[in-house]
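Mods, move this if it's the wrong board.
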Amino acid sequence: MSYPFSEIELKWQRRWEEAKTFRARPDSARKFYLLEMFPYPSGRIHMGHVRNYTIGDVLARTRMSQGFQVLHPMGFDAFGQPAENAAIKNKVNPFDWTTRCVEEMRNGLRRLGFSYDWEREVVTCEPSYYGWNQWIFLRMLKKGLAYRAKAPVNWCASCQTTLANEEVVDGGCWRCGTAVQARDLEQWFLKITAYAEELLKDLESLKEWPERVLTMQRNWIGKSEGAEIWFTLEGSGKRLPVFTTRPDTIFGATYVVVAPEHPVVPELIKACPQEKQVRAFIERVSRKAKEVRTAADVKKEGVFTGSFALNPVNGEKIPVWVADYVLMEYGSGAIMVVPAHDQRDFLFAREHHLPIRVVIQPPPGTVPVRGQSPEEWPQAYEAEGVQVHSGQFNGFPSGEGKKKIAAWMEEKKMGKRVTHWRLRDWLISRQRYWGTPIPIVHCSACGVVPVSEKDLPVLLPQEAPLTGEGGSPLAKVKSFVETSCPRCGKPASRETDTMATFFDSSWYFLRFCSPRFSKGPFDPKEAAFWMPVDQYIGGIEHAILHLLYSRFFTKFLRDEGLLKPPEPFARLLTQGMVLKDGEVMSKSKGNVVDPEGVIERYGADTLRLFILFAAPPEDSLEWQGSAIEGSFRFLNRVWDLVQSVIATPSGARGEQSQNDDELRKATHAAIKRVTEDLESFKFNTGVSALMELRNAIEKSAASASPAALREAVEALVQLLFPFTPHLAEELWERLGHQEMLTASPWPPYDPQLLTETEATLVIQVNGKVRSHLRVPVGLNEETLKARVLEDPAVQKWLDGKAPKQIIVIPNRLVNVVC
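Not the wrong board. Structure tokens:
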């Protein structure tokens, strides 16, 4: 018979709510802000939610027990395209759909007993939240960080909306996977590039972020130091700036490549025989996503424009090509090509029979082989070497040559040293309904005019024609569009694009500090107490999008004088996926396990324990039905054990027992191990320590003294609390405690009980285990060897002969070689 988990869990969830146990108050010197990435309200919770939020809850409850004032809030990232699509599909209003989903998800999270301060709940589709989105936008507009421009943008034909560069994944839309196309549109951007240097530099301060995330952000920001070299177009004499990070190879340039979108292309192909071919090529490339064009494993394509350019360092005439792998937004949109020293260019030159010229000589013994003709090389030589065929720079090491050539070209007005960034300004315009209206009015007399702050929020209309077809639904809502100009009062029209939903999630962690504050997006005093977030938890898929945008917003709001910390998240944990049969759980694959069904059968605590025990949090977790059964059995055994200790009169056991020392050592070893495992996110080994402690208590229960047994049982319950809080609270109460475990201090361990006076040595003879020996810890080596040689098993194998060697690993192992 199992313990009454359902009754116990509902009881304690009710008790916590009535007592407002998890209400956070900024009234302690020891604060801890624990936050998991808030969910999109898709309806019922799934196992990914369970894992993410269980990990966070364990850490939050641990900090509560350690005496911290813990802020552990929850909210819902409620705007976005999925709700709009669901509303179209189900013929319902997005407001109603989202409200229903939020309620359903809120109930699912409550059923798991998470320690959220629900009074701080934030729902981003509510005007009380998105009005501050608009306020932040206007502040950015005033500082020149928000602007409108016509530019080539990523377009998803399926979603009928634009995408930021960060939202294009493997050439497709991050939501639906549809191949992304390029379009020229007037759009709103945020100038995140103004913070590029600081965003890159401050990554060094994030000592407790995964290195993988830091690397992803460094690569995305993409600082490149090099030179802008001024080639000249033959005939017109027009300057063609070319960016390179390898000015040391300028003497080896054999052709130039421009991006298909480069504004010089029409001039290059005008009246040339290749014009028709080039235009057809550009049209075809426009339908390819940038990620596909630049992917290392995709064959590069290009065509000759019919025009030539002059290399400024030697006056050589070289052909100008258009190729798909050059992007307009990187550098100058044009590159010089040195096939001998760039693998991508090497392959392209081979494909199109273009010349290859060596200007960096490889050291002897390297591949390609020194002295070989470049036509015989199996690959490009991209490392450092010695300058050759480089005029007055011959003989210099290429690293030194790079600096000297760049300085020389700058002096001779052939170019200049520059820094370029891969990071591009953030496109926030979306041609969708379910998002924050951009607070802008278009006036025929005044142009683009911001809405006054006193008139915020600009409310999203309750109804709009949602068809899923092209164009913004808001443009079809006359009562929304028609307005008056804030500046001149004449008839005008509202902006009908809405903000990307990543705008909403770029500062929500600040709103949690003071969610009812009405004089600004957050109360600076409350933010000063709680920020930065001490522990942030979420998926690796947000390494660039959300995390980079949040860092940008934090730095901007700091510059506005609203915030002090330059970074939002001090420590970051990225948890792995939940798999079944080796694949991520999804409805389309039919491998979803419903958390509610598991809770109904086994209880929330069992599900929590399984999630924490099955794998380290950073790794993927494979769902196993037998393992959930094992977790359930363990909790039932803990229940039975504690009940038996409670039911057994203290007089039935001796006042002192020889087993007390061993039980107390096991108890304090478990406290130490679980405490350390919680700090290092080793939840699975922490659970193992709890299982070992339960076994030790069960083994000693019949003979241990009441005091030792009581200490062990109470420690077991306290250590279980972060993992299985409902069961732990119930057992704690039944053990006679009046206060909740949330108010009970974390159990300390006694270091003296963990100091071993003796160690068990493994004795090997010729590498095979032959015996074991108990010896005092710290015994000197000569005495230890003598004791080992006295062991009967060793004497048998030596057979009266002296050993050749005795290898000692202190306190662990001795190997006798004979």
